[in-house]
Prior knowledge:
Blueprint: E1 11-15, E2 21-25, E3 33-38, E4 44-52, E5 55-67, E6 70-79, E7 82-89, H1 93-101, E8 111-119, E9 125-133, E10 136-137, H2 165-196, H3 204-209
Parallel strand pairs: 1-7
Antiparallel strand pairs: 1-2, 2-4, 3-4, 5-6, 5-8, 6-7, 8-9, 9-10
Amino acid sequence: MGLINDRFEGVYASINAEGVISVKVEEGTPGAKFKEYELRDGTKGSKWVLEYNKLDGFITDVKFFDGNFGEQINVSIKDESGEVILTLPLGSNYASDIMKKLPNIDFSKKVVIAPFSFEDDKKKRKKGVTIYQENNKIKSFFSDEEGKSINDFPVPAKEYDKMKTKDWTVYFIEVAEFLKNYTETNVCSKIEQACQANVITFDESKAEEMSIDDIPFITPDEAFDDPKKE
């Protein structure tokens, strides 16, 4: 019998309510911030995190799974320095925005992922993810220049002013399932083909210099503790 180590030795990251990429680390990690949180079930806790405003690299995999806090999406981003798995609730604005743009990405090239969260002039919270490739913003595959839905993207069953809270809940579930199915059917194979074609290459000399002791990581379920539904 041979010993096998297939444990992921990269970094799990999430995006918090403030639109910041967050990585859980041990207390005492240089630059780490102390954060307190409360889950939807009322459970309170705290953690130390490192925070970043951008993430760059090649998108090498997208997977979906059921976690302790509901269905989630894992987006793997890799470059010479290592691998980051961005873990997001499937129904979040951040996950939705990423999935809307995935079909327009060239997976043989690096991307820059920059989340945002701000209040507009009407005091409404806007959350999402801007994705750049070669200094160009990636547009949604499911919206035209006027912002109208295209490519069979679901539309609300009623006029906006007639939609009630329960109607929006049903609609957003439909949107999440649509984007998940479209991603699995039309996007994941393109990512796999890009990797198999060896168009994504890395400088192995740089990778060998990286020490696993320098890489903080957290479990997938710990990567989601934002109690606010977007």
